[in-house]
């Protein structure tokens, strides 16, 4: 491989351009006017406004759903631990003996 004469390093590989995707939506006149007005108020294009709004809503939805799933799982694990506690392991038994010996 070729190396740069000054730094002794290989030249950096060009970074490929980020892939973009197209998203189309059909709006009625009322929706178009509403979105255009909101975009104008924020000084954005309609496309930028819609993409930003959709991305924010998607993140909020995913976060809310993830918390509900985790909360349900954690609640079940907690209830199971209370109703069926595991037997103390050797480290905990040793700690109890140490505690009682120092009293």
Give the topology:
Blueprint: H1 29-42, H2 46-83, H3 90-102
Brief summary of the model shown:
This protein has helices at 29-42, 46-83, 90-102. With 103 residues, the protein is mostly helical.
Walk me through what this model shows.
This protein has 103 residues and is mostly helical. It has one domain (29-102). It is built from three helices and no strands. Helix 1 crosses helix 2 (46-83). It is elongated and about 80 Å long. The chain starts with 28 loop residues before the first helix and ends with a helix.
Question: Top keywords for this entry?
Answer:
mainly alpha
Measured as a percent range, the helix fraction is 55-70%
**What's the helix count?**
3
The outline comes out as elongated
**Order of helices and strands, N to C?**
HHH
> What is the residue-averaged pLDDT?
89
Structural class: mainly alpha
Straight-line distance between termini: 72 Å
Number of domains: 1
Strand content: under 5%
């Amino acid at each position: 491989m070729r190396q740069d004469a000054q730094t002794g390093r290989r030249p950096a590989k060009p970074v490929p351009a980020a892939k973009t995707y197209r998203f189309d939506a059909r709006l009625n006149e009322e929706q178009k006017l509403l979105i255009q007005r909101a975009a104008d108020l924020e000084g954005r294009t309609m496309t930028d406004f819609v993409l930003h709004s959709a991305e924010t809503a998607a993140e909020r939805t995913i976060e809310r759903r993830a918390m509900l799933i985790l909360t349900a799982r954690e609640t079940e694990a907690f209830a199971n631990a209370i109703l069926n506690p595991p037997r103390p392991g050797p480290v905990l038994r040793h700690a109890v003996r140490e505690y009682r010996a120092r009293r």
